[in-house]
Design a protein that fits this description.
Elements lengths: L8 E8 L10 E10 L2 E9 L8 H7 L3 H4 L5 H12 L3 E4 L2 H14 L8 E3 H8 L8 H9 L11 H19 L4
Parallel strand pairs: 1-4, 4-5
Antiparallel strand pairs: 1-2, 2-3
Helix pairs in contact: 5-7, 6-7
């Protein structure tokens, strides 16, 4: 991983077993991209083994199956590595409250404090582009950047983090980080 300066930001996305960590839902994939000076300088991506079945409704969203998690590292291995990757960086996510809520839970489970500064591209897009038909990541990306890359796998953590990174960089370039 290249050296990250203090002005580096990390755009991240998680895929989960459901919508609520308080109901026992877990992170099963995390993707993160470090950006600096308008460029992606490093990436972090992994599926995460958990001892819980992925509900069908979650599988339909992201396509991650129980079989795909077999042999993958458990959360006790992944989250210390992720913490090192994001340490000292501002966090950016599309619908950040969702991602940050899950990450706070996962870090709490391994005894690591986590209360990052973060920015939300979803909230920012709602302020900047109130007339968009919706503010899904793909919609905001198309509005700012044009067609989606043809090799993108929507609702997978690293690809969504890459899309959100481009959205963030475009919004910052045009409107500043406060939107």
């Amino acid at each position: 991983m290249p050296y990250k300066s203090a002005k580096c930001s990390v755009v991240l996305d998680v895929e989960t077993t459901g919508l609520s960590p308080s109901r026992g839902d877990r992170v099963i994939e995390v993707g993160a991209v470090a950006i600096e000076d308008g460029e992606i300088i490093s990436e972090f991506d992994t599926l995460i083994y958990i001892e819980k079945k992925i509900p069908w409704h979650a599988q339909r969203v992201h396509g991650i199956t129980d079989a795909m998690l077999l042999g993958k590292p458990p959360s006790e291995e992944v989250f210390p590595e992720l913490h090192q990757f994001i340490s000292g960086s501002a966090i950016i996510a599309h619908n950040a409250r969702f991602d940050i809520g899950f990450l706070k839970h996962e870090f709490h489970c391994i005894g690591v404090p986590f209360n990052p500064e973060y920015h939300c591209t979803l909230e920012m897009s709602r302020r900047l582009f109130p007339k968009l038909t919706n503010h899904k990541l793909e919609t905001v990306y198309r509005h700012l950047c044009g067609d989606l890359p043809h090799n993108i796998n929507g609702h997978r953590a690293l690809d969504d983090a890459r899309l959100a990174a481009r959205v963030w960089m475009e919004m910052v370039k045009e409107y500043g980080s406060n939107g």
